[in-house]
């Protein structure tokens, strides 16, 4: 099922995003974000000890919440 543009969040609008294990594998921008005004999708490792990852394109920080 595809989402309409009106149901998508703006990509790269925040500096820190909290994500859950349901969001894995993690990508920036996330699937729930519009892609037309963003950088190419990149997959980010976040399962490390600290549960954090930073996008190399836009600098958005992702924090894994259990």
Automatic annotation (TrEMBL):
<protein>
    <submittedName>
        <fullName>Putative Zn-finger protein</fullName>
    </submittedName>
</protein>
<dbReference type="InterPro" id="IPR019401">
    <property type="entry name" value="Znf_CHCC"/>
</dbReference>
<feature type="domain" description="Zinc finger CHCC-type">
    <location>
        <begin position="38"/>
        <end position="62"/>
    </location>
</feature>
<dbReference type="Pfam" id="PF10276">
    <property type="entry name" value="zf-CHCC"/>
</dbReference>
């Amino acid at each position: 099922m595809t989402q309409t543009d009106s149901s998508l969040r703006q990509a790269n609008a925040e500096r820190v995003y909290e994500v859950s294990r349901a969001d894995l594998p993690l990508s920036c921008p996330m699937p729930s974000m519009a892609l037309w005004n963003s950088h190419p999708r990149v997959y980010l490792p976040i399962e490390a000890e600290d549960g954090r990852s930073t996008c190399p394109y836009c600098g958005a920080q992702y924090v894994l919440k259990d």
